[in-house]
Amino acid sequence: MRPLEGTVALVTGASSGIGEATARALADDGAAVALVARRGDRLEALAASIGDAGGEALVVEADITDRAAADAAVAAAIARWGRLDILVNNAGVMLLGPIADAPLEEWDRMLEINLRAVLSMTHAVLPHLLAAAELGPRRVADLVNISSTAGRQVKRGSAVYNLTKHGVGAFSESFRQEFSRRHLRVGVVEPGAVRTELRDHLRPEIRAVQAERMAAMEALEPSDVADAVRYIVTRPRHQMINELLLRPTEQD
Ligand code: NDP
User: Fold this and answer.
1) Which residues pair with 220 in a beta bridge?
2) pLDDT per residue over 221-251, tens digit each?
C-alpha cells in the first residue's frame, strides 16, 4: 500500500515549480490532492496528468490573498472528500531589492501571499487537520510550510523576503508547541536556489543579477524539494521533521 493512500492533501501554488512537483509527488504516494492557485489552465493540465497516472486531483482556482477565497478553497476540498490530512503552504513570491526606494507594492505582495495567505489557509484547515490527526487512517496530520534559506540567513537586498520567511519559521515553531501533543505535525522546508518561475517576477535589473547567480551553479529542481516534503509527511506517527534545509551543493 502506498504511504498516503486514503489521505487528502491541499497544495497552494500548485500551478508551477515546487507546488506542482509536490502535488505530483503526494499523488504518486496515494494522496488525493486539491490544487490551489490563480492560473486555472495550468491546474487543469496538472489535474489531467495526475489523473492519467491513476491519481485523483481537484482544481481550485483561487487568489488566496483574499481570505474568503482561501476559506472557499478549503471548503471545496472538504465538499469533495470530507477530510484534509495535509496542507502544504507553498504559494509565494520573492521580490528582491534594496530597501531604499523599494516599490511598496512589492512589499505588500510579499506580505499578502508569503504571510497573510499562509495564516488564512492554516486557520481554515486547522479543524480538519485536528480531526484527521484524531480519527484519520494515519492518526497524524501534517502542516508543511515552504520557507527558504532566506528564513535562516539574512542578506542585503532581501529584507522583506527575509522578514516573511523568518515569520513563517516563527509561526511554525509556535504551532509545533501548541499542537504536537495532538499529533498534528509541522515541517518547515528551507530550499536554496530552485529552478522555477519565481525569479520571473523580479525587476529587470535584479532579475539579471539572479540569472547570473543561477547560471553559476547547478540549482535544485522542483522535484528535489517535493522529495523533501514527501519525506516529511511519510514519517511514522511518532516522528516529526520540524525543519529541512536543502541547498544546491555549490550554493554559498
Ligand atoms: P513559482 O513562481 O514557480 O510558484 C509560485 C506559485 O505560487 C505559483 O503556483 C503561483 O500560482 C502561486 N501563487 C502566487 N501568488 C498566488 C496567489 N495570490 N494565490 C494563489 N497562488 C499564488 O515559484 P516556486 O515554485 O519557486 O515557489 C514556491 C515557494 O518556494 C515560494 O514560497 C518560494 O518563496 C519558495 N522558495 C523558492 C525558491 C526558489 O529558488 N525557487 C527557494 C526557496 C524557497 P499562480 O500564479 O497561478 O497563482
Assistant:
1) 194
2) 999 999 999 999 999 999 999 999 999 999 9
The CB of 22 under 6 Å from ligand 1? The reply is: no
User: pLDDT (tens digit, 9 = 90+) per residue, 2-42?
Assistant: 999 999 999 999 999 999 999 999 999 999 999 999 999 99
Task: Please identify which residue in the block is written with the cell numbers 520573492.
Answer: 94
Q: Across the beta sheet with 184-191, what order do the strands follow?
A: 57-61, 32-37, 8-12, 86-89, 141-146, 184-191, 243-246
**Ligand 1 center to 23 CA (angstroms):** 13
Nearest-atom index, ligand 1, CA of 220 = 40
3-class DSSP assignment, residue 98: coil
Residue 58 is inside which H or E element, if any? strand 57-61
Indicate the top mutation candidate among 93, 115, 155 to test ligand 1's pocket, ranked by most ligand atoms within 8 A of CB: 93
Determine which helix (DSSP H) or strand (DSSP E) holds 61, and give its type and residue range.
Answer: strand 57-61
Q: Other CB atoms closer than 10 Å to residue 184's CB: what's the count?
A: 21
- Does domain 8-246 fall under CATH 3.40.50.720? My reply is yes
The 3-state DSSP class for residue 35 equals: strand
* 161 carries an active-site annotation: yes
If you search the block for the grid coordinates 522542483, which residue do you land on?
222
pLDDT class of 92 with cuts at 50, 70, 90:
very high
- Predicted confidence (pLDDT) at residue 121 exceeds the cutoff of 90: yes
Ligand 1 centroid – CA 81 distance (Å): 25
Ligand 1 mean position to 157 CA, how many Å? 19
Judge if the beta carbon of residue 197 lies within 6 A of ligand 1: yes
